[in-house]
């Protein structure tokens, strides 16, 4: 993902503290949804760099219903924004409404916010329509000295949009996460690598690869990592990537020893490819 440019960081540092103060006042006064939208319009302009008159619109109709705000550049809608009053806690039904808007118009990215709690979703055009929470942050808790916080803000900025930062970030979280790493650990070649290291520690003890797998499944990894719907999707994806069937035999000791003797093991190759991806 592209790093945040210096000029964008300078704009964040100049504008965010001021809006944190504005939002505190608005929260204390419990302003209504209309006033919250007005503040959001200013945030999109001053913090995130959009032209509030040409690129942020509240006149965007989807099947006769108006969404709160839309970021539209050169006739293309890049984000839909569903706003709630600053005092309203965000709920699942709020994002369903926003994603229905996006699905009806073909807009894949949706922001749900009450101006303090920000959530960015990406719609999956499936049957039924689904969506993934990609980023969330609390505007009050933004740390301008934290590089990760700055990078998350950059995803929403006009400059980030121009550099395709949000899609790069989405690609990263889809491929580098606990489900992918958990399933990679259970890959036969990774298990073989663990077996080799254990044999170095306990030279005179027989180490069975199936026993290692069982320990990892039952004592190391959470069940969510290997048994949830998300984990099964990742497992199928990895099986296709490595062109291996979902159900496969464990390598015999002789096969494992053959891998041991290679100059670059399959495990080393996997780690290298993962680092390069």
Describe this structure in words.
The chain is of the alpha+beta class and 277 residues long. It has two domains: 161 residues, tt1808, chain A; 99 residues, no CATH class. It is built from 13 helices and eight strands. The protein has a six-stranded mixed β-sheet with strand order 1-4-5-6-7-8, sandwiched between helices. The chain has a two-stranded antiparallel sheet with strand order 2-3. Strand 6 and strand 7 form a beta hairpin. Helix 1 packs antiparallel against helix 2 and helix 7 packs across helix 11. The radius of gyration is 24 Å and the shape is elongated.
Tell me the domain tally.
Answer: 2
Figure out the total of helices. 13
Give the beta-strand count: 8
Largest sheet: 6 strands, mixed
End-to-end gap: 12 Å
Indicate the percent of residues in helices: 40-55%
Instruction: Report the portion of residues in β strands.
Output: 5-15%
Secondary structure class reads: alpha+beta
- Using only C-alpha atoms, the radius of gyration works out to 24 Å
Low-confidence stretches: 256-261, 263-271
For the largest sheet, list the strands in their spatial order.
1-4-5-6-7-8
Give the second-level CATH assignment, the architecture of the largest domain.
Alpha-Beta Complex
How would you state the average pLDDT, rounded? Answer: 83
State the name of the first-level CATH class of the largest domain. Alpha Beta
CATH-defined topology of the largest domain: tt1808, chain A
What is the N-to-C order of secondary-structure elements (H for helix, E for strand)? HHEEEEEHEEEHHHHHHHHHH
Give the overall shape: elongated
């Amino acid at each position: 993902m592209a790093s945040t440019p210096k000029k964008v960081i300078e704009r964040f540092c100049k504008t965010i503290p001021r809006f944190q103060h504005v939002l505190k006042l608005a929260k204390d006064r419990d302003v209504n949804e209309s006033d919250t939208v007005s503040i959001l319009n200013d945030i999109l302009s001053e913090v995130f760099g959009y032209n509030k008159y040409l690129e942020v619109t509240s006149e965007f109709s989807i099947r006769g219903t108006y969404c709160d705000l839309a970021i539209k550049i050169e006739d293309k809608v890049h984000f839909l924004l569903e706003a709630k009053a600053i005092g309203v806690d965000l709920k699942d039904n709020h994002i369903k409404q926003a994603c229905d808007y996006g699905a009806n118009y073909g807009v894949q990215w949706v922001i749900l916010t009450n101006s303090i709690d920000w959530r960015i979703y990406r719609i999956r055009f499936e049957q039924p329509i689904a969506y993934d929470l990609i980023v969330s942050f609390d505007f009050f808790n933004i740390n301008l000295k934290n590089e990760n916080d700055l990078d998350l803000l950059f995803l929403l900025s006009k400059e980030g949009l121009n550099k395709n930062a949000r899609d790069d970030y989405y690609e990263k979280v889809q491929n580098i996460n606990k489900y992918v790493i958990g399933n990679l650990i259970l890959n036969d070649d990774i298990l073989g690598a663990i077996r080799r290291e254990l044999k170095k520690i306990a030279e005179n003890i027989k180490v069975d690869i199936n026993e290692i797998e069982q320990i990892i499944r039952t004592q190391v990894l959470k069940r969510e990592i290997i048994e949830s719907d998300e984990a099964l999707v990742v497992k199928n994806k990895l099986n296709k990537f490595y062109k291996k069937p979902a159900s496969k035999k464990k390598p015999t000791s002789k096969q494992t020893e053959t891998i041991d003797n290679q100059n670059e093991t399959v495990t080393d190759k996997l780690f290298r490819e993962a680092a390069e991806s």
